[in-house]
Design a protein that fits this description.
The structure holds two protein chains of two kinds. Chain A is built from 14 helices and no strands. By secondary structure, chain A is mainly α. The longest helix of chain A is centred in the first third of the chain and has 26 residues. In chain B, α5 links the parallel β6 and β7. Chain B is α/β, with parallel strands linked by helices. In chain B, strands 5-6-7-3-8-9 form a six-stranded mixed sheet, with helices on both faces. A three-stranded antiparallel sheet of chain B has the order 2-1-4, with helices on one face. Classes of the chains: A mainly alpha, B alpha/beta. Chains A and B meet through α8, α9 and α13 of A and β5 and α2 of B.
Amino acid sequence: MLLQVSGPSKIAGPTWNLVGDLQQIFQYEFMQNAFFAGTIVAILAGVVGYFVVLRRLGFACEALSHGGFAGATGAAVIGQDVFLGLVVFTSVSGAFMGWMGDRLRGRDVAIGGTLAFSLALGLLFLSLSTRFSGLAVNILFGSILSIAANDVRFVAVFAAIALLLLGAMYRPLLFASVDAEIADARGVPVRGLSIAFMILLAITVSASIQVVGVLLIFALLILPAAAAQQLSAQPSRAILLAVVLAVAYVWAGLLIGFYLPYPPSFFITALAFLAFVGVHVTHNPR
Amino acid sequence: MALDDAAVRLGGRIIWQHASFSVAPGQLVGIIGPNGTGKTTLLRVLLGQVKASAGSVNVLGGLPRRGNPAIGYVPQRRTLEADLALRGRDLVLLGLIGHRWGFGPASAADRAAVADALTAVDATSYADKPVGLLSGGEQQRLLIAQALLTNPQLVLLDEPIASLDLRSSHDIVHLVDNLRRDRHITVLFVAHDLNPLLEVLDGIIYIADGVPRSGSLDEVLRSDLLSALYATQVHVHSTADGHRYVVGA
């Protein structure tokens, strides 16, 4: 994986000819890949993020993401694919967190401790070889511009599987997320859904890390969904809105990042944050 | 429903035992007892969420089982999360289709059933607001509507009036009373404050010394029995027009 956090440096600025500009952008294979991967990840993150916000799993999501750092660097140390390392490591931690379920509530210290340990573990793995110095920045802050066509396919397959599973368990998951106690009495397998959702979240986190990195995961997984929930109290609309917002942030971030010598993950995160603040200020009913 | 010498053991500890009583169809029965005596556990046994460790339990002519649509349930809680971004209508709808796999819009019949249930609890006017913004009484009405959706024969209410003001608790109690008469529903109603319920109750189940027992209002509403039950002085007062009030010392 090559270290490339910002776009090519010698490119003429945007013109008023949008079609021409887009043609210019899509001449570059890395931009095609970035748009493909970014869009797929944004769709998945929007949908999964809705449930993350509803289930109040923001901190757990952050912890999974940091755990991913250890998984990714660990995979690099033993010469395995970084994305695979991410998926395996976060899925196992996710399944455990899902199994713990409600018992994790209020365990901020335990989660925070695990989070810190994961980062430290990642640091140790990185120190094992100087070859990984570029990898660290990529994992921590995203590497969407250096994503390979092969990785795009990998991400697409995982996202498709995740979305299919999510579609199959949508209604019971919504029920269990809103009111686990009544859902359980109605025969909904609350614990099983909790584990399944955490594994889906792990896959989503792994895919999102490719785009915005471990440290900026909130930009795609929390902020679009949180803004959407302020704008609509109707689940299907809120989910659609979260997807639209996430895709818009990624596209805008990539476009701006193409012309400016700064990393797209900064612009994606900045847009997501500003939009969230804007929505919060204008739509907070209290 | 009937229990015969039933007992429950959780984590090696006996919660209660020797429970032998029955509740006739259509009755509205209160469940009382100090905190931690197993009132909620009794409801969980009927719901099939907790298995009796001894004796037999019969609910609506069968063994308790999870997901029985003939039982409606409103669990104990203070209020729903204030920022829960979900319309009341969607919350109620989940009681009908929330256990079905897959996704997609609700059918016209499902939406009509939700509208009926909302009308039955008089919640139509705020059904499209986010539930987190509603008052405790409004939220309880939505949860009762949700419990009614499957046309249950038995409804279990766990402290539905615990955090409500006088007016709201009075309204909820009479709503429940009317619903069970109209729809011939048996209702078990867990409550700490008996007073709002006394006019409508047919009987009382109380858990004393680890044994759930049932009795008529006359049998249970005695100062000595209630004082022993709560381990503090409790007085039952009767007014000239026949109303009774339970007052802690």
